[in-house]
Task: structure prediction
Amino acid sequence: MFAIQVGRLGNLPHGIEILGITDYFSVGNRSLSYTSLAPRVAAFEPYREPLLNHLLHVKLRHWDQQLRELAADGLAALVPLAKERLVDEVVPLLSGLSLSSDLLVRHGAVFGLSRILRALSTKNDLKLNVVQQLMVLVPAFEKARLYRGKGAEMMRIAICSLIQSFAVLNLEITDELHSHLLKSIDDSLKHPSKDVRDTAVQALKEFSQEYNGPKFVEGIAADILKKTTQRYVEALTDDDINFRRGAAGALSVLPSTLLFPIKAKVLVALCKAATNRKSGSEKKRSPLDPSNDDAEARAAATESLAAVCCTLGLDLQKGLCREEVIDVALPALLDALCDYSVDKRGDVGSWVREAAMESFGAIGILLCNARELSQDVSLAILNGLLKQSVEKINRIRETAGKVLAKLLHHLQGFPSLPSLTLLQEIIPKESFNFWTSPAECFPKMVELLKLKEYQSSIMQGLILSVGGISDSLGQTATDSLVKFLQSSSADVSVLHSISDNLLEIFRRNPGQDRVIIPLIRTIDYLLSRGFYTSTTDGNLFCSELIPLLRQETKKCRDIQKLKLVVNVCCHLFGVPEAALVRSSSLQLLLDLLVNRYPKVRAYAAEQLYVCLITDETPDDEAESALEILQDTR
Result:
């Protein structure tokens, strides 16, 4: 409409210039229109007041929450053009409307205040009476109980944003108000909504940094600040899972002056909250701790652990020592990488693993810069990341790849690692779609199987992709592994070490179907392609495999797992010149013929019948067995 008026009338002030600014494609982006185009239009004097009034009286009380927030951002963008009116008229007006009984007006007013205050360059722009009006706003809001009922969530976000603006602008507050504001932040940290907790964490970050200065060294505020960290540490074991999540986030943003006095307690508490298992070797891990069964809380604690380490830094006088990071924090992060918890939402443990990998990136750079990253620690971190880089979830592979690239190409202080040049060649510095594309990722990553230092971790992650339920991913991973084993670089020693790793994974994860089922499926694929069926090492691998398979069939109720065992036994029965392997696999097949599940018995009989028919060394007993199987089908 404006373009039509400019074209027909031709006497609208600055019409051509405004049309050049607000073209068809620019105004299609709503956020850009409010925060960028509106200030450029308001630069023309005739349009400034109408635009400001429209944002203030119409859009700031719109029924759409996002529009109200955009209107607040638009008002903040107008501060350089209309500072006097905004400070002298709009801020007092919004302060009065902040206690309105109308939710839309109330929310728009508080949010508008927070954005305008943050846009001011200094607190001296505000008059004394305006500051006094702002200072009583949060206590009055709590006294009126406006956090309750409809719209409580959005109002908590708005109030936390307002408190953050107080701190950014460095407004003078009393000890009593200090307590009120901190209590309001604490209450929001317990809220079930993640958006509320995240906003409270950001408010606490600015609040604790700004109001932790010389003025608050003594008095009520000082006492509260000293107890703040301890309160959040204790909240990590609170029965309220929302408070645990919020407390972990709060610890991640506190300044070093609050963390340092009880740094040991903070680290231990975060390490305990970051893992769902007791410390110890992977094969002796305890079951999920019922008191810490929330994946989101563990992920928040994992992120906070790295943030605390980076905040304190490696400084014997004001921060952490090397042993506290390497002996306390890193083992907890390595343990978090083994979190594969599952609930009705799926693999929720992936949130914890992703947070642990990102934490490795932060702590790895911290140790690199301090020249404290030893070869043993580097190998532990890289092996943990390499395992995740070949697993089945695209998002996890991408996160692992980005962290690997950051560490491998951040060479200052990085120790000499085995085959570092090959690692840098295989893992790209700029990933693009490398990690999310199995056809690009797996053919390159399997090349690391030739390196003994990384072979075990690569195999642990690879079997979950090869033996997973995804057809496309599993086929790509299988083809990459088979092609590597068939290549000239895959010599006998590599095949032998891979078989040892497969058996070791079997022994370390007894009864864990998450690992055992993909592992058996991977072994089935390898045996079906002729690996480990014609060499002395292969016969040794097969003879050690059968007792492990037998152990997995005991009291097993998973029919799919039992069928996979049948397939592997059939391959083992066909191993030539290995009488012990043939007899042991046949005995296990016979045991499955009398399994309690009809489907398993029928499948075992069918597969055994096929094995006997195709057996190149038949005898009279085999002929009799064929007749029996044929009669009972």
